[in-house]
Amino acid sequence: MVSTATKIGSFTFDNCLMNAAGVYCMTREELLEIEASAAGSFVTKTGTLNARPGNPEPRYADTLLGSINSMGLPNHGYQYYLDFVTELQNNPDSKPHFLSLVGLSQDETHTILKAVEASDYKGLIELNLSCPNVPGKPQIAYDFETTEAILTEVFTYFTKPLGVKLPPYFDIVHFDQAAAVFNKFPLTFVNCINSIGNGLVIEDETVLIKPKNGFGGIGGDYVKPTALANVHAFYQRLNPSIQIIGTGGVKTGRDAFEHILCGASMVQIGTALHQEGPAIFERITSELKAIMQEKGYETLEDFRGKLNYLA
Ligand code: SIN
């Protein structure tokens, strides 16, 4: 019997597929649609200390090979999402969830995480260190010193299962340096990758989105090779206790299979979910199961991380 069940930390999921933060996760209604779908879990929109309207519209566009966005972290404030996932966990049929969070400053991040630590929420937390779209705020995880300082402080008070959402890295030395930082901490997971930041898509003579004169995060087909490289680079380098969530360019069962082959324990879907809606989880699950069946794999453990190299 082929199964796509998986585990992250001590949490078991019936299916390894779920949404990526930013897609189908802004409101309770959207999150409930993912909850009711074939997805194994959901992650909330990244919640900040206070609610934010985000950047001016149009701030998302589908393109031939994916998408570009500069949403600017529009959200209802972390408390909205914390209340919702805490409420859901009281339902015995509820899936385990991921609460995505970040502050607009280190102080805000600590304020939020201390509130989550003090709350009744028992699920997973994803600290977003990689949003490329807030004007004047760089992607935190490109600054290794700041990243280490934040995590050092966080783990003086935070005891719940925490992972980090990472931007793509593009250099082997940066994979080494980033992994050396993450290996110092009791992280439950890293999530590779957020969008490739600050791309530019042009139609005729004009940019597609309004914020930042058209610069925005790129997702979809464009990013799959970069996502796979990041998943595998961290799979090779991180302590085995730190699991990998693979995100980027997943729109078929084959794409999900490749993420798992590179080392992912869970696979998130962003652009393709936005384009196809929550029914995508059923389609990709059956495509992934068909590939596993054909290859004689019954569980994800049978092929996770077992990427072949050329001799
Ligand atoms: C955004 O809200 O700008 C997208 C979120 C992200 O890239 O982290």
TrEMBL record:
**Enzyme class, spelled out:** oxidoreductase
Q: Which domain of life is it from?
A: Bacteria
Q: Which residues bind FMN?
A: 45-46, 128, 165, 193, 220, 248-249, 270-271
Report the locations given in the UniProt record: Cytoplasm
Note accompanying the cofactor annotation:
Binds 1 FMN per subunit.
- Copy the pathway line from the protein's UniProt record: Pyrimidine metabolism; UMP biosynthesis via de novo pathway
Which residues are involved in binding substrate?
A: 45, 69-73, 128, 194-195
- Keyword presence, Lipid biosynthesis: no
Query: Keywords on this record?
Result: Cytoplasm, Flavoprotein, FMN, Oxidoreductase, Pyrimidine biosynthesis
| Major location (coarse) | cytoplasm
Dihydroorotate dehydrogenase catalytic domain mapped to chain residues = 5-292
Q: Output the Pfam families linked to this UniProt entry.
A: DHO_dh
- GO BP terms: 'de novo' pyrimidine nucleobase biosynthetic process; 'de novo' UMP biosynthetic process
**What do we know about how this protein assembles, alone or with others?**
Homodimer.
Q: Which NCBIfam families match?
A: PRK02506.1
The UniProt entry's sequence similarity note says: Belongs to the dihydroorotate dehydrogenase family. Type 1 subfamily.
What this protein is reported to do is described as: Catalyzes the conversion of dihydroorotate to orotate with fumarate as the electron acceptor.
This protein's name = Dihydroorotate dehydrogenase
| Lineage of source species | Bacteria, Bacillati, Bacillota, Bacilli, Lactobacillales
